[in-house]
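Notebook entry, structure prediction.
Reason for the run: the old model in the group folder had no record of what sequence produced it. Starting over properly, with the input documented here first.
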Amino acid sequence: ISMRRVKIGLPLRHPGELAKAASTFNGLPILWVHRPASAESHPHDITIGATGNEATFASPFLRNSLSIWPAYASKAVEDGTQKQLSCGYSYKADMTPGEYDGEKYDGVMRNIVGNHVALVRDGRAGSDVAIDEAYDAKVWRNIEQALKKFGVSTW
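New structure, fully documented this time:
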């Protein structure tokens, strides 16, 4: 009997499917490591925060606000040692092959549902998927400017 390795590619995360799934990434736990989470089996020991309630899809990214609670996790983000994000989710595999944006794929992820977001050193989606402090700073500057227009003092 001989065993052959068969290469099985990951299904495509199609932008349309990600857009439909955006709201399922609201209110999710942020974990220090990847581990499935549920109300029945919540991983309190590794929960370090939560996603906001404004998830949107702006191709090619899902965007949402984040709250990170413990000091050790905030420090890891600030010093850059652990600031990439990696989403845990479920999906239904539609193994119909095709091509998208010039790349062939073996199937498409359908009915994507968010489960958690992990704060990691090296995320599966790469360094582009990370906490963006520059974006956050820009948002806060805009909020402060708007408040000042109404005579509200900030800090």
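Summary: The first helix runs from residue 15 to 21.
The old model has been moved to the deprecated folder.
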